[in-house]
Design goal:
alpha/beta, Aspartate Aminotransferase, domain 2, 3-stranded antiparallel sheet, 14 helices, about 15% strand, globular, binds pyridoxal-5'-phosphate
Length: about 350
């Protein structure tokens, strides 16, 4: 039987051989005491790469975003963010539970928000007895819809935040994908946010973790809040060791996954009942409509051949490429799909 190939997400990525070796050999200590040399090294490297004063290793992307909200905001604050962002769609309503904030979703046009819409909605509790204060603006880049937000849009929103004295948090789960698409250094993106959260366990292949970066004072407060939320880890250097390679070697090559995605999109064009959403392919995700064929049936049939996909979500299929996806894997997927569908 063929090996498993998996197009469901880039979260399924296994660590590389280099990562396994680095984890095995990692020098570790109790990070709650600040004694883990590998965590300290990881956080220093992360801060440098992300262009911020300090950084903090956290257990997951959701943890990093929620920790940012918790640290930036007071209970009863309002957070302005796009209606289709991950924090609203896929974080279990955590901002209400953990931070007691009100999320104020605004219209998103393919992931981009209109800076004027944001400006109009910023409120201060001193101005009216009915008002909460806006505590935070959240951006997402790359967006989970597969598209990359322009630098111009980020810049304008950040300017609004600065003018109104409201901090901006960037959910950069796939920040390196966004930077590769824009052909820019990640610092050119992170200059337009106060804090940023990056997942190391998606396309960057580390097994666990995210990193939250910001200025030193913010990260000090976030560190205390991370402990409160149960995210103070002990010998976390085993994770950080893989994380260092994620942020360096793996981040450098992430653009290759975008080329693989374009190849996959091209091959999907061969099906007359598939409609590829070409303008949504910016990173390692291919979105398409599967017409006149049941996506659950396709999923079940492919699984018999050790190929994993997700069924359609809200009428859209999504295939994701990663470090572990080869051209041969895609050819195998396409030929199996032809057998099943034709
Ligand atoms: C995956 C993801 C997250 C959350 O990461 P988890 O590690 O799954 O908690 C946050 N934001 C975006 C845009 C993501 O894609």
């Amino acid at each position: 039987m063929n090996k498993f190939i998996d197009f469901r997400s880039d979260t399924v990525t296994q660590p590389t051989d280099d990562m396994r070796k680095a984890m095995f050999e990692a020098e570790v200590g109790d990070d709650v005491y600040g004694d883990d040399p590998t965590v300290n090294k990881f956080e220093k490297i992360a801060a440098e790469i992300l262009g911020k004063e300090a950084a903090l290793l956290v257990p997951s992307g959701t943890f990093g975003n929620q920790l940012a909200i918790f640290t930036h905001c007071k209970r009863g604050n309002e957070v302005i963010l796009g209606e289709d962002c991950h924090i609203i769609q896929h974080e279990v309503g955590a901002a209400a539970v953990i931070s007691g904030v009100q999320l104020r979703p605004i219209q998103s046009s393919k992931g981009e928000m209109n800076p004027l819409h944001i400006k109009e909605r910023i409120r201060r509790e001193e101005d009216d007895i009915h008002y909460p204060s806006t505590g935070l603006i959240c951006l997402e880049n790359a967006h989970s819809n597969g598209r990359v937000i322009s630098l111009e849009n980020m810049k304008e929103i950040y300017k609004v935040g600065k003018e109104k004295n409201v901090p901006v948090h960037l959910d950069g789960a796939r920040l390196f994908n966004a930077a590769a698409y824009l052909n820019k250094d990640v610092k050119e993106l992170t200059q337009f946010c106060d804090t940023v959260n990056v997942c190391i366990s998606k396309g960057l292949c580390a097994p666990i973790g995210s990193v939250l970066a910001g200025d030193r004072k913010f990260i000090e407060r976030a560190k205390k809040a991370r402990k409160l939320l149960g995210g103070g880890l002990r010998q976390a250097g085993f994770i950080a060791a893989a994380g260092i390679l994620a942020l360096t070697d793996m981040a450098e090559r992430i653009g290759e996954d975008h080329e693989t995605a374009l190849y996959l999109a091209k091959r999907l064009e061969e099906f007359k009942n598939i409609e590829v959403l070409h303008d949504s392919i910016h990173i390692n995700m291919v979105f398409f409509k599967l017409n006149e064929f049941d996506s659950i049936k396709l999923m079940e049939e492919l699984l018999k051949h050790n190929i994993k996909i997700n069924p359609a979500e809200e009428g859209l299929m999504r295939f994701v490429t990663s470090y572990w996806t080869s051209k041969e894997d895609i050819d195998r997927l396409i030929s199996k799909m032809k057998e099943i569908m034709e």
